[in-house]
Design goal:
Number of helices: 4
Structural class: alpha+beta
Largest sheet: 3 strands, antiparallel
Helix content: 40-55%
Distance between the termini: 8 Å
C-alpha cells in the first residue's frame, strides 16, 4: 500500500478533476521538505490536515489555504528541482507530481476555491 499527500478542496464538487497521485513526491517528502526549508518555503506538514477524531484524537478545525499560495509553493519547488535534479532520488517523478499539484491549484484559483493537503494512508 502506498502513502500519498493529496489535495482536498473546500468544495465537494469543484467542477474539475482534482485528483493528484502524489506518491512519488510523498516517497521523497523528507528531501523535498529539506529543499523547501533551504529556499524559505513551508513544509508539507504545514499544509496538511488530518482528521484524527475518528481515532480518538483531538477534533481539529480544518485550515484552508489560497490557491495562489499553493501555486507559488509548488512552482518554487519545481523550479529548484529543475535546476538541481540531483537533490532528490527521482526528480522527474517529483516534478511530474508537482505539475499535477500546480494544475489543480490553478483550476482551484480560477474557481475561487481553497485547499489543504491530506495524507492517504
Amino acid at each position: 500500500m502506498s502513502v500519498a499527500y493529496f489535495i482536498t478542496l473546500d468544495s465537494d464538487d469543484p467542477g474539475f478533476d482534482a485528483f493528484v497521485d502524489g506518491k512519488v513526491l510523498t516517497r521523497h517528502v523528507d528531501s523535498v521538505n529539506a529543499i523547501a526549508a533551504d529556499i524559505g518555503l513551508k513544509q508539507f506538514e504545514d499544509y496538511a490536515f488530518q482528521d484524527l477524531s475518528e481515532f480518538g484524537g483531538p477534533d481539529m478545525d480544518e485550515q484552508w489555504f489560497d490557491a495562489a499560495e499553493g501555486i507559488a509553493w509548488a512552482t518554487a519547488l519545481r523550479a529548484h528541482l529543475r535546476n538541481h535534479p540531483g537533490a532528490v532520488g527521482d526528480a522527474a517523478g517529483v516534478i511530474e507530481d508537482l505539475d499535477d499539484y500546480i494544475r489543480v491549484f490553478e483550476e482551484a484559483e480560477s474557481r475561487g476555491l481553497k485547499w489543504h493537503l491530506e495524507l492517504d494512508l
